[in-house]
Amino acid sequence: MNVYDSARMAEILAPLGYAPGDDPEDADMVILNTCHIREKASDKVYSELGRLRKAKARRAEEGSPMVIAVAGCVAQAEGEEMLRRAPYVDIVLGPQTYHRLPEMVARAHRAGDGAGAPDQRGVLDTEFPADSKFDHLPDRQDANAVSAFLSIQEGCDKFCTFCVVPYTRGAEFSRPVAQVLEEARQLVDGGVRELTLLGQNVNAYHGVDEAGQEAGLGTLVERFAALEGVARIRYTTSHPRDVDDALIAAHGNVDALMPFLHLPVQSGSDRILEAMNRGHDVAQYLDTVARLRAARPDLALSCDFIVGFPGESDADFEATLDLVRTVGFTMAYSFKYSSRPGTPAAGMPRQVPEDVKDERLARLQALLEEQRQAFNAETVGRTLDVLFERPGRHPGQLVGRSPYNQAVHVATTEHQVGDIAKVAIDSCKPHSLEGHIVGSGSAQPREDSEERLSA
Ligand code: SAH
Ligand code: SF4
Fold first, then answer.
1. Which of these, 59, 112, 267, 333, is most buried using a 10 Å CB contact count?
2. Which residues have C-beta atoms less than 6 Å from ligand 2?
């Protein structure tokens, strides 16, 4: 979502004469778009700011000022404190106010021109405005992109005990159906063929449609699939509690909806799921997976895990490994629990020592990596539809994505970026597949679905 937000910030600043640059040292303005989800991510912001401070000082000596802005969830969480701790920062803005960037930049320039102590000059905007930023953003300009993100939902009301998102992104909010369809149309007009619908809990989507009725994600996916030019749809991140029948049906009925789903479970222990306030148990998760696979037998799953949540015992952790073995994931992200200020879990007793977290993370990642490699190996010999996204490193080579989001390298002269082709997979490397063209793509990557992963 930060990638999406950054692209939109660039769009809103374009009329002011700003364009994305490669080297922060030479930039008139640098915006750090930050993530607060784990401690490491927040720490990085200050080390990055330290570097920018030097670049800003050097440029000031040369008479060319640099505006430094910090956006995103660290900015939201720290607010004023950030301006105090790093007084050379000009603008601190939250994830819900970036439509006001032009105004903030103007204010920062005025303050920079004027007198006053440096720590009084910072512009701060970390409000949760009543009107949505999406009502104020310009048209999409993802020129030449084949695949694009589209935020349809933001924020979260679930309050998992480890998580800062409800505090930094704010309350759950769904954009209206007509608005997101219009954004999709702009993207498709610019050549986009694959849309990834985004939300912190994207399947909690309940936007109002043209008739004033609430539409769920299942319905919305059908609406996107009906748009001329949309070949592929993905969505992320979904919550197991919000997988409803209509969404499961969409996985069965909508060919453009790719058979790859990110469905985080965090832990395989009922006790820990309860302490996390996830609102479901292991049996419910497995049941949801079974119903999804019944609708779409070739569905591949990816997941998020947290190890070392407060109170997690060896047995709880073993239960997580069991769940991984039972479900079988194509890939997954796994993290050591990171205590976040202001969240209920931060104050829980029995915090798990760092070395235990390290050891559990290594064991979990070894198992997940084994499953990922096995999945890639299983695709060798199959024919998959590949959407080409960019030229490869070698002349005459294109790199694309399989329906399961695997990178696929193909030598071809008759296809170009944006095409979908049928590719027979010949071999796999640790992070990519190689194949050769056997026909043009149908945009309906389903024909070999019966061979897919059994649970
Ligand atoms: N809404 C999604 C997740 C969004 S946060 C869901 O509920 O599944 C993305 C991932 O970051 C989470 O799935 C979780 O695995 C991880 N995460 C969030 N807070 C964390 C914390 N305090 N420590 C470690 N990992 C965390
Ligand atoms: Fe965070 Fe996801 Fe839980 Fe919301 S549902 S609080 S975003 S982990």
1. 267
2. 156, 158-160, 163, 165-166, 200-201, 239
